[in-house]
Structure formats: structure tokens, C-alpha cells
Amino acid sequence: MKFLTVRDFVVNQKKTRQTISKEQAIITYNGKPIALLNPLNEDNFENVVREQSSQWALQAMENMQKTAMKHGITEKDAEKEIQAVRKLRAKKNVKSGT
User: What's the fold here for domain 1-39?
Assistant: First the structure.
């Protein structure tokens, strides 16, 4: 995995394209990571996008769980809330005829 600065990314575009076509690269700004670039081509495009989307969803779930724990919400509390929302949606669907 290569590390590229924002300056490298902008100034040396040809080198950047060559680098990221072969391997993952981390873009940094002031020494801190700000982006991860994955090599893409027509053959792997859908798989890479699907995998990235799955990773974002897992990260969102972990963040929600951490927030819930921080606020003292138990699994039982969360399940009650989910059931209440499902009931509310079911009522709305019945009223709208869908």
C-alpha cells in the first residue's frame, strides 16, 4: 500500500494513476490519512463497489452500537423501539392501501 500526499495526487497525476492502478493508496493531508483509493477496472468494478458498501454499512452499525451503549440503551430497549416503528409503518401502509 502506498501513501500519497494531496500535493502528489494533484501535481503528479500520471504517477498517481500508475500507482493506484496497481495497488491501494492512502491519500494524506498534513500527514493525516483522508482517503483510501482502490484500484478499479471494468472486471472488478462491481465487486469493489459492493465490498466497499458492505464495509460502510458494517462501520455504521458499529457506530450505532457504540452510541447506544454510551447512552445506556440495551438490546431489549432497541428491540422494543424497532417493534414500535414496525407497528407504526404497518398502520401507515394500511391507511394508504399499500
Answer: YefM-like fold (3.40.1620)
Domain residue spans of the chain: 1-39, 42-98
Element (H, E) at 34: strand 32-37
Residue in 56, 20, 50 with CA at minimum distance from that of residue 38: 20
User: How do residues 11-64 score in pLDDT, each as one tens digit?
Assistant: 988 988 888 888 999 999 999 999 998 888 889 889 989 998 999 899 998 998
Those residues whose C-beta lies under 8 Å from the C-beta of residue 48, and which sit 6 or more positions away, are 38, 40
Helical residues (DSSP H) of 12-44, grouped into ranges? 13-22
The pTM for the full model equals 0.56
